[in-house]
Amino acid sequence: MAQVIIALGSNLGNRLHYLQKAAHRLSEISDSKINKSSLWESEPVGNAKYSFLNGVISIETGIKPQILLKKLKDFEQQLGREKEPVRWGPRIIDLDIISYDDLVIQSNSLIIPHPEYRKRLFVLLPLREIEPDWKDPETEESIHKIINKAPLIDIEITDYNW
């Protein structure tokens, strides 16, 4: 089984509802109980316009990385996400594989660790919450060091239950 870290975000419609549905779906594909962070509200990035709700979930699975990515993208579309969304634009749901065990993957369709996560406090803070000893599989840098280097944004923890 591989430990997989997945970042989730939503900034359109009933954001909490979409994240709850995604958490349920991830629990269905996990071979053990999922580990969820709190939900965090953050300012929009790029062209997104509306604030995001973000969280991180850790799952254990035997599903191979490329197949898992396809399952996540299919689920995003089932919830109503556009097939070709605007980069950093508004979205009903976004599911990103941040890490897959200690694998480093560089392919046309999948990059692990996720290429943008180091710049995203809305991924890093929830990740530290559930995996305080986590290290980047590529650089071996601790989550704490990565957070200290990340650009500052407006972000706060919420009391939403998901």
Can I get a quick summary?
With 162 residues, the protein is α+β, with helices and mostly antiparallel strands. 28% of the residues lie in helices and 23% in strands.
Q: What is the second-level CATH architecture?
A: 2-Layer Sandwich
Sequence of secondary-structure elements? EHEEEHEEEHHE
Structural category is alpha+beta
Number of domains as seen in the coordinates: 1
In CATH, the homologous superfamily goes by the name 7,8-Dihydro-6-hydroxymethylpterin-pyrophosphokinase HPPK
Secondary structure tally, helices? 4
**Residue-averaged pLDDT:** 92
- What is the name of the CATH topology? Alpha-Beta Plaits
Question: What is the percent of helical residues?
Answer: 25-40%
E-strand count: 8
Distance, first to last CA? 25 Å
Q: What percentage of amino acids are in beta strands? A: 15-25%
The backbone outline, from C-alpha atoms, is: globular
What would CATH call the class? Answer: Alpha Beta
Biggest sheet descriptor: 6 strands, antiparallel
- Which ranges are low-confidence, i.e. pLDDT below 50, for 5 or more consecutive residues? none
By oligomeric state, this entry counts as single chain
